Amino acid sequence: MKTDDATLLITGGTGTFGKAFIKLCLSGRTFNKIIILSRDEFKQHQLRVDLVSQLGELEVDRRFRFFLGDVRDVSRLRRAFAGVDVVVHAAALKHVPFCEYNPSEALLTNVTGTKNVCDAAIDCDVQRVVCLSTDKAVEPINFYGSTKMLAERYAVHSNVYAAGKTAVSCVRYGNIVGSRGSVVESFRTLPAPIPFQITHPEMTRFWMHIHDAAKAVMWTIKECHGGEVVVPLIRSCRVTDLARAIDPTRQQVTVGIRPGEKFHEQLFNRREHEHAFDVISQWQHDKTMYYVVVPESVEFDPLRRSYSTHCSLTFRRSYCSNDASALMSAAEISETAAT
Question: Residue 264 in contact with residue 204, Cβ under 8 Å?
């Protein structure tokens, strides 16, 4: 899809991902108009002030719009999506403990909100929708992961009744280094000499830089046909090793695994390798490896045949954060901690 003259709307656009994606759009001069839809007027004000300091008032007024709204309100989405070409759905409740304690809120935002986004996009003839997902959606054991699994499934299968007019895809990735509320941010901002709290010394996680997550979403917008789950090739490490790279002198205290917390994360479930393709992106002359998971349903047979003509099914049989092939070297951990 060509995006130069297109209109983009980002739900949850004042968050870590939204800001990074806007930065990517501005660097490549993609999208003629960018709409930020979120619930918090103060964060929208802060984002507008930041953009004005970078671009000037006239350019922000020409190119940006700031819509207050909630993905739980489908009528608001239908009004907001009028004339929009691409929707990136980043709005979600993301913290495992809060979703465990507030399941009704997580369900409304993550599942009903995603359903509303997909339905409204189809109703308004939006060309492309990309929904952000997470490794916690793979064989979930907590409420947050379960809501994201359902959201991912609904997004993928909404293509069945989109009649080819709206293409809905997902991007699934792991932890974002330094994102708001992340463990890395917690480690960096924890005053000395308070020790780092580690849930288990052998726990591993996938780590990704926010600009790489933004690039994965942009590639998905440009290249995907609808129904795909795009999984970037990313690396992992033990949380203890990352904490040690951030502050090698700080004491680490083991506090025990929290309710709903996995020992290791997964980016494929046990069967997805059977219908996942290896794809190398050439976007902006930057070779990036993605796995593209195509649904098993017969309705997606044409999509599967399309990928099979120019891509190979992956040889990867497992994609877990404790896989030897996924684990970072000491140098990579140090580089990740310094980002």
Answer: yes
